[in-house]
Protein: Type-4 uracil-DNA glycosylase
Organism: Paraburkholderia bengalensis
Amino acid sequence: MSSRKSTASSASADVPDEARGRPAPTAQHPADVEPGQHPVTLDDCRRCALWSRATQAVGGVGPKHAPIMMVGEQPGDKEDQQGAPFVGPAGQLLDDALKEAGVSRRDVYVTNAVKHFKWEPRGKRRMHKTPAQREIDACHYWLERELASVGPRVIVALGATALKAILEDRAAKLQAVVGKVLTHGGRHVVPTYHPSFALRAPDEATRERAYAAIVAALRDAGKLASR
Ligand code: URA
């Protein structure tokens, strides 16, 4: 596993807000927000270009010291509008899977590897576009701060983008590690499928297998967290 540090892609990120004619952000850390509350953004982030087409940055939500952190890819259309992670259909599937795995939402902090919605227009719709490695890198500082602040014992990587971000390894392959438990930075990492895959895979058998794998991963995470 690489120990590559995340890189800030734009010098403007280091320019204080006051110098750019904006008030400095006063937001509390997203980890201070309890579940059910509106998340607060950490920063008026400009480290990559995604902010310019997104409604807002979407920080993580959950208990301040949750033992489990679930990391997705990036906010979707609903999350972008509502300013909270996993509030759309993928979030509903995660809620169902958590229930089935016997893991309480109160033990879980939920966030994404990339905090702005990346999309392209298709007719009147905004279609999700997978973030590029440079965007994952640019956003990594935020995930690092969440990890440092929440201090989870277990991280659940939901999909390939999350896995790359958590392991800081652009070559990480989800398929090679699904169903295993990894260790990174002194924490357990449980890689599994992204909930959207369990919702949108073309055939039902694949969707069912993916959902079962997500439930199994959450069950593993719950056991590891309570050790
Ligand atoms: N997909 C994600 O990866 N994250 C969200 O917050 C919503 C959908």
Summary: The helical segments are 77-82, 89-101, 133-150, 160-167, 174-177, 195-200, 204-225. Residues 72-76, 79, 85-86, 88, 90, 112, 196 surround uracil (CB under 6 Å). The chain has a mean pLDDT of 85. The chain has one domain: 49-225.
